[in-house]
Design goal:
Elements lengths: L1 H7 L5 H9 L4 E2 L5 H14 L7 H22 L9 H28 L4 H25 L6 H25 L2 E2 L5 H18 L7 E3 L4 E2 H26 L18 H17 L4 H4 L1 H25 L11 H11 L6 H31 L7 E2 L5 E2 L1 H8 L29
Parallel strand pairs: 1-2
Antiparallel strand pairs: 3-4, 5-6
């Protein structure tokens, strides 16, 4: 058991922990909506968020609101083909807005309470990785995309792969870069789609614009999504292939710029192969469960890439999280020795436990090294904050310096109070 747990989450060396503590967030680019949302986010932190609320706890509460409301949609339509009542769609839109608001304001809260650390940035990225799964899934359910299951799988794969590529680019260039249409804009678009579905029903998206060829609104939504994904993906690849800042154009860890390719390749290829090679309709009938399972696989490898980028270390090519997909693949190879539905649940539970243990162990190791708490801010008896900065000074770990990014966002490692943290 100990060997298995150590394989799921490696023990971070003192060298990696030191580099993590010295990490400084860097980002560039400006989105369309972020400047417009800044007054609301500043007001929310100043007037609504209590001073004692931990930034990481804010992020986690936002993620929980997103997951719970999305899972209500899954309950009503596990195959993305069933009609969904208006209220779960409305709740999902509210849940996503709550997540966006708390995710945008946790950086401001960290600066306000002087609790900025590398753990905050990593915690934020990890929650975003999980949120990507449920945000993309909710929009598929909201437009009845289960009737076009291949498109639904492709959309989910694009979403998680692009999120991974954003951090792959950061691993190579040392800087997270944002486009005019980025996370905030995508989330607002999905909120609008959820509200439209709530008001007019999910069947509105099956309205045929060109009846002669069966072209309905779903295809328009998917075409716009795919077009934007291709543009963003090409921009990422260009940065990855041409802008390495390490020795001889290598990554921040002086490793090959293509080293992060193997994990995402395995995740994407296994997800597509297992789905399309299945002799049954199990994965189509339970497509939400299938996509969540593989989404968690990409969430873990993305988190490991973030750790590698922040600690300037080599990324692990293989991971225990691939055991879940491997079970499904081998079962197909040996002509379904085990019922695919049962094995899908086994793969799901294994994957989620693998991801949760990795997240817990990694956060605990970093928090212990920095001598801070993960989800709370310590008070003294006079109700004054015992900030992470003061605790760090006692433990002689390197302190974080404030560094303002040019994109109107702030990172969890160094967050200007009046700016939003980066969303990737």
């Amino acid at each position: 058991m100990a060997v298995m747990l150590s394989a799921i989450c490696e023990k971070l060396s003192d060298r990696k922990l030191l580099r993590l503590s010295q990490h400084k967030y860097s980002a560039s680019g400006s989105t369309l909506l972020d400047p417009l949302m800044q007054p609301f986010w500043r007001w929310f932190v100043d007037r609504v968020v209590p001073i004692w609320w931990s930034p990481n706890a804010m992020t986690l509460v936002g993620l929980a609101s997103n997951i719970v409301t999305a899972c209500i949609l899954v309950h009503y339509s596990p195959d993305a083909k069933q009609g969904i009542p208006w209220w779960p769609l409305l709740f999902c839109a509210i849940g996503l807005f709550v997540y966006q608001t708390l995710d945008a304001c946790d950086g401001k809260q960290a600066r306000r309470t002087k609790t900025s650390t590398c753990l905050g940035e990593l915690f934020d990225h990890g929650c975003d990785a999980v949120s990507t799964i449920f945000v993309s899934l909710s929009v598929c359910l909201a437009v009845d995309l289960g009737h076009l299951p291949a498109l639904m799988v492709m959309l989910q794969v694009m979403a998680v792969a692009l999120f991974y590529m954003a951090h792959w680019q950061t691993y190579v260039t040392g800087e997270l870069r944002f486009a005019k249409f980025d996370v905030t804009e995508a989330q607002m678009t999905i909120i609008i789609i959820l509200l439209v579905s709530s008001m007019f029903g999910t069947s509105i998206w099956t309205y045929e614009i060109v009846p002669s060829i069966g072209l309905d609104l779903r295809y328009i939504v998917m075409f716009i999504t795919a077009f934007n994904a291709v543009i963003i993906g090409c921009r990422y690849f260009n940065a990855i292939l041409t802008q390495g800042i390490g020795k001889n154009g290598s990554s921040v860890a002086d490793t090959s710029i293509l080293s992060p390719f193997i994990p995402i390749f395995l995740a994407v290829v296994s997800a597509l192969t297992i789905y399309f090679k299945s002799p049954s309709t199990v994965f189509e009938d339970h497509i939400a469960l299938y996509l969540i399972t593989f989404g968690l696989v990409t969430a873990k490898i993305t988190c490991k890439l973030v750790v590698a980028q922040m600690s300037k270390s080599e990324i692990t090519k293989l991971d225990t999280v691939f055991i879940g997909p491997l079970l499904l693949f081998l079962n197909q190879y040996f002509n379904e020795t085990i019922d695919e539905y049962i094995l899908l649940w086994i793969a799901y539970f294994y994957t989620i436990l693998d991801f949760l243990y990795y997240s817990y162990s990694t956060c605990t190791q970093i928090a212990t090294y920095l001598k801070i708490r993960v989800l709370s801010i310590q008070y003294d008896r006079n109700n004054k904050l015992m900030t992470h900065s003061r605790q760090n000074s006692l433990s002689n770990t390197p302190s974080q310096t404030s560094e303002t990014s040019t994109n109107g966002r702030d990172g969890r490692g160094s967050r200007p109070y009046n700016l939003r943290h980066e969303k990737r």
